[in-house]
Write a structure and sequence with these properties.
The protein has about 550 residues and is α/β, with parallel strands linked by helices. The protein contains 19 helices and 19 strands. The chain has 3 domains: about 150 residues, 2-Layer Sandwich (Beta-Lactamase), CATH 3.30.450.40; about 150 residues, GAF domain (Beta-Lactamase); about 230 residues, EAL domain (TIM Barrel, Alpha-Beta Barrel), CATH 3.20.20.450. Helix 3 runs antiparallel to helix 5 and helix 7 packs antiparallel against helix 10. It comes from Kineococcus xinjiangensis.
Length: about 550
């Protein structure tokens, strides 16, 4: 029976060894026993040199020696093939690479075979042993990597991934979402700094960061030449995106020396938008070597996908913001804002008690005037547009009969704006009603009430619209204590045919009387509605049946 057949059971047992050192020890024992050698050695190699050594007798490699010190071993490392020499000082030496289908893991050597020397059978046995040792070591390393990945992707990583995913599902500002995802990347991988970069025009620009940027001498907005970056090398395929130890990577080590980067570990992936367009990179770095595993790179790719969607959301919002700003600019330009008025009629006499100034935007092609104001508020220019509308409305005041008031609209933020006081302070007392519109619900009443008190001292009355549309609107009325209450159009429309609407309208009449406020019915569109409202005691009305909005000079009811 051949020497190889005699050692089959030994080869199988290698896979049962609990750790790499045990595999190495068992491999050397089998090699010495199977070849009749008087000594044997084996080494396992890592990024920084020898990681494990095992020797029996006076081996080819002594503990602590470098693999390349022996010429025979050096030949094995270079050729990745078994090498046999009969003229060595030990009476003959045989060495084989510990390699399977992947990287070279180490070298197995036997020496001093006795009188017969090493033959072909011995070379077959040692080569097979070395290869089986490589499979055993690779299996142990795969198990260890899987365990590490399992730990990373167990509860902490699941929570991290869930947090990152929730960012995309929440209605959150996109770049805040990117910052949160960067925090997840940095904390999950145990790195010092996470960076989103944009690549273009020969530079890599740092857009967002999470972590200790000062430790690496970098800052948001900084641009560096592409050739100086790891990320560009990853994009070109010159280096892996996973570098646990930069000192052991030729490119990384050279970059660190040349540029003084101080990077000990790196994990980075390309960053693309949802349409596939390259945006830049997502990377994490640390000043020290870190135990990164392939699963970390996969996790970072998943986060890069999330960031890509957030960047696309951000660009879409910025595009919409630019469009809204351009639309607001057009509305604020000469001729971009026009004012019409709609009479508020005393239902008992038929005379005009006041007019409401309403804005029209000829250049706007996106919906109603309310949509224009909403768009302006979305880009932080709502107050500016409302004040411009108020300026245009106030210019009509000298042309109104002296016994007709002017009702102008303003949201709570504009009411609190100090610029409003200066505008109304120049106008006659008792001629202006400030109708508070609500783009958003009032969350903080004291500042609003203080502003209304200042307006009251200037002779400005306050109106609240949409009264009766719900409990919140009634609470708003009670808090503001207006001089005019505008009955919501949903209570007015169909009041002549719906008993429940009549009951609510009657209740609002009593409610206004108790508060000492005048009640104005909005949206009066038919003669039947007008008749019922009069019967219910509603004193004032406004709507298409009475008069449509029109330029001041075209309002027939105001001609006297």
């Amino acid at each position: 029976m051949s020497a190889l057949a005699d050692t089959i059971d030994d080869l199988v047992r290698l896979n049962a060894r609990p750790d790499e050192q045990a595999v190495l020890d068992e491999t050397v024992d089998i090699a010495v026993r199977s070849t009749g050698a008087r000594s044997g050695s084996a080494v396992l190699l890592g990024p920084t040199g020898t990681t494990h050594v095992s020797s029996r007798g006076r081996g080819a490699l002594e503990p602590g020696s470098a693999p390349g010190d022996d010429p025979l071993v050096r030949d094995v490392l270079q050729t990745r093939c078994a090498v046999r020499r009969a003229d060595s000082p030990r009476g003959g030496t045989l060495a084989a690479p510990i390699v399977a289908d992947g990287p070279l893991l180490g070298v197995l050597c036997v020496a001093d075979p006795g009188d017969g020397g090493f033959g072909d059978d011995h070379e077959v046995v040692v080569t097979a042993l070395a290869r089986q040792a490589a499979w055993a070591v690779s299996g142990l390393r795969a198990q260890r990597a899987a365990a590490e990945l399992g730990e990373r992707l167990d509860e902490p990583a699941t929570a991290a991934a869930t947090t990152a995913l929730q960012v995309t599902l929440q209605d959150e500002e996109p770049m805040r979402a990117v910052d949160r995802i960067l925090d997840v990347a940095r904390n999950h991988l145990g790195m010092s700094l996470a960076i989103v970069s944009r690549i273009g025009d020969g530079v890599q620009r740092y857009d967002r960061m999470s972590g200790a940027a000062q430790d690496f001498g970098v800052a948001v907005g900084q641009a560096v030449p592409l050739e100086a970056t790891y990320c560009h090398a990853v994009l070109e395929g010159r280096i892996s995106g996973l570098i646990p130890d930069a000192a052991a990577d030729p490119f990384a080590a050279a970059q660190n020396r040349r540029l003084g980067l101080g990077i000990g570990a790196y994990c980075g992936v390309p960053l693309r938008l949802p349409d596939g367009e390259l945006y830049g990179s997502l990377c994490t770095i640390s000043p020290d070597a870190e135990p990164l595993v392939p699963g970390d790179l996969a996790f970072l790719r998943a986060l890069a996908d999330l960031i890509g969607h957030q960047l696309e959301r951000h660009e879409r919002r910025e595009r919409e913001r630019r469009e809204r700003n351009a639309a607001v600019d057009a509305c604020l330009a000469p001729g971009g804002l026009q004012v019409v008025v709609q009479p508020i009629v005393d239902l008992t006499t038929g005379s005009v008690a006041g007019v409401e100034a309403l804005s029209r935007f000829p250049s706007w092609d996106g919906g109603s005037p309310a949509d224009v104001f909403d768009a302006a508020h979305q880009v932080g220019r709502g107050n500016d547009l409302e004040l411009a509308a108020i300026d245009a409305a106030l210019r009509l005041l000298p042309d109104l009969p002296r016994d007709v008031y002017l009702s102008i609209n303003a949201g709570p933020a504009t009411v609190r704006d100090e610029r409003l006081l200066g505008r109304v302070a120049r106008e006659p007392r008792g001629r202006i009603v400030m109708e508070i519109t609500e783009h958003v619900q009032v969350s903080d009443y004291p500042p609003l009430l203080a502003a209304l008190d200042r307006l009251a001292k200037l002779g400005v009355a306050v109106a609240v619209d949409d009264a009766g549309s719900g409990f919140a609107s009634l609470q708003h009325v009670l808090t503001v204590s207006p001089q005019l209450i505008k009955l919501d159009v949903t209570l007015v429309r169909g009041v002549d045919t719906d008993p429940s609407r009549r009951a609510l309208a009657r209740a609002m009449v009593l409610f206004a009387e108790e508060l000492g406020a005048r009640l104005v019915a909005e949206g009066v569109e038919t003669a039947a509605e007008l008749l019922v409202l009069r019967e219910l005691g509603v004193r004032y009305g406004q709507g298409f049946h009475l008069a449509r909005p029109a330029p001041l000079g075209e309002q027939v009811l105001l001609r006297r």
